[in-house]
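quick one, 338 residues, struct below
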Amino acid sequence: MTTMAGRATIREVADAAGVSRQTVSNSLIHPERVKGPTLERVRRVIDELGYRPSNAAQSLRSQRTGAVGFELNATGSATRNAVSFPFVLALSERAPAHNGHIVTFGTTSEHPLLSGYEDMVRSQLVDAFILADTHEGDPRPDWLDGARIPYAAFGRLWGRPELTSWADVDGAHGLRVATEHLLAQGYSTVGFLGWPAGSQVGDDRRRGWAAVHEDRSMPLGPEAMAVQDLGAATAAAGPLLDQVGRGGAIACASDMFALGVERAAAARGWRSGTDIGICGFDASVIAEIESLTSVALPLYEIADHLLGLLQDRLGGAPPPAAGLLVEPGLTIRSSSTR
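---
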């Protein structure tokens, strides 16, 4: 039975459709969260009863693409934050062009957890997410798909080729460009300092360095591995400098590693650029302050692409046919010029 004023209530719609009031609300505000047959049944009852949502609900629906969640790792390494913070800036600057804005939330876990995403969805603070720090076995895509929450990832969804809502930096291309630059500058040997084998991002970057040697029929230069820590990078750089020798160069998987190489070189009286060529990856503030040549991430291009993907998904479009690999450039500074 409708109210005295003849206006059906959300409870009456829920009872007639055999669903909860939350399902009725989702059918109006977040239809992507409701299964097809249920959504059709709720919409049919809404039409039959002549239900009209309140102005507040209508306003909420009209703004459903306005908030995009992005998780920040509060305890991440300096290098990770050196990328994530500029990326948040790029997202924030580009979001208005996609009729949206960015809402950040934090975690203190080494890897992203579902709890933060569950809290954001439960509080109805966002309608979509941009994921970062993707890794093999990442539980977030499956959970978000199950909850019918659109997402796009900054980084490949490793081990899941069927998932295509992502954009990533072509790390192999970046190290290829860096290695070719160092050889063009006349450095005799180009070594590599990266993460231990098994890091998808690190392995991808190493492939670019190795590919240049293969293309030129050159033997691979010396290489060393370290964890993402300045002390570890500096310690690993010492023996690597011994192998490369004065007049050689080292291409690094991150700016933190490049800084470690610079410190190890300075400790033996070598000048970066003149005695040893050094190239990092990320074009972070570290590289700018230390005048380190570094692979520059196309963060604004990636932000635009991911926000566009979310806008399309919220509009009902299917996932893209494939993810997007973006080729980075190279910011050349004194550490690699002779």
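The chain is about 45% helix and 15% strand.
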